[in-house]
Amino acid sequence: MELLKNLLLVLHLIGWAMVLGGVLATMRAPKLAPGVLHGALTALVTGILMVGVIEMGDLHPVDHAKIGVKLVIALVVTALVVVGQRKPEKVTTGYLGAIAGLTVANVAIAVLWR
């Protein structure tokens, strides 16, 4: 179970890296890079699976408040990315900044909230 959790964690972090990297790479000419949607979905799905594996394996106690906050942020980021993909005219530097800021906030919550 520990190995599966760690594999999911690696994939989760790669997903967030795809989101943040894709957004930062296109800040000057505001548009969403193609991999941003895949990264957001990867991060969302692997995060949910990781919590399930931790709960199922009784690896350590889960802080449900922290997971709830992270889930809401992940859903908002994913929704922003989906809307940005469907309506590219809405994507501005501020829009991309919001996605980047929420992504950094999600990672910071994971690391700093103990």
From TrEMBL:
<feature type="transmembrane region" description="Helical">
    <location>
        <begin position="35"/>
        <end position="55"/>
    </location>
</feature>
<feature type="transmembrane region" description="Helical">
    <location>
        <begin position="67"/>
        <end position="83"/>
    </location>
</feature>
<keyword id="KW-1133">Transmembrane helix</keyword>
<feature type="transmembrane region" description="Helical">
    <location>
        <begin position="95"/>
        <end position="113"/>
    </location>
</feature>
<protein>
    <recommendedName>
        <fullName>Integral membrane protein</fullName>
    </recommendedName>
</protein>
<keyword id="KW-0812">Transmembrane</keyword>
<keyword id="KW-0472">Membrane</keyword>
